[in-house]
Amino acid sequence: MWHTAGKGMRGEDSTPADFACDVMLEHIPNLPSFDIIDPCAGAGGPIPFLEPALNRKLRDGGAAPVRFVMSDLWPSLERWAAISHRSEHITRKPGKKECRIYNLCFHHFDDPDAQLVLRSAIESSDTFVIFEMTNRTLTAFLNTTFLMLSPFLTTLVWFRNFPLHIFFTNVIPLVPLMFAVDGYVSCIRGRTNRELEELLRRQKDLDLSVWEFSSGETKVLPPFGVMYWYVGVKKGD
Prior knowledge:
Elements: E1 6-7, E2 13-14, H1 16-27, E3 34-38, H2 47-60, E4 67-70, H3 77-86, E5 90-91, E6 97-103, H4 111-124, E7 127-132, H5 138-149, H6 151-158, H7 163-171, H8 174-189, H9 193-201, E8 211-221, E9 225-234
């Protein structure tokens, strides 16, 4: 998904990875002073796409590169080692100020856990960014439907030499069913940017006076794919 051809912030040809980088560059001052930490990196997530895209943009602007740090409750160390071997700017060891990035994963948290994740970001990081492609909107449900139906075609193109794959996609459609369940549940669990901010504001003992927040949404994968983003930056960083 992250390297699929789509549109950028101003309608230019782009990819979701490039768009995410543009959001960070526009809303986080002095980005190279941060380590970008992915707390839900899984097997690497979009980091192999975000790192070269972001550092290319920084290099073109005459700025220093930024480091990406992978982290997860259940780390895939073997996969991480392979990813970090391909780039000196991807590591497992943080060093600079923290910019935490949540890539299409924040909807996994129930409200109590989401509040704790946001509290941790406010109390012990310097910046955080949330990216989502699922939400309780018509366009999100239409995009999920499009993705659910796409394996019927892509399987015949990409996996035509794998009969078992074709069987469980086009004959017994388990793969599209998996896409449907995961996608529609993710849409139902998605939060609006206003709801994300409410999760912060309802924690009355949380000091937000030194933080600035911005958010938005942009269609990055026409006709229906919208990227929702929410950025928190500590003032003075």
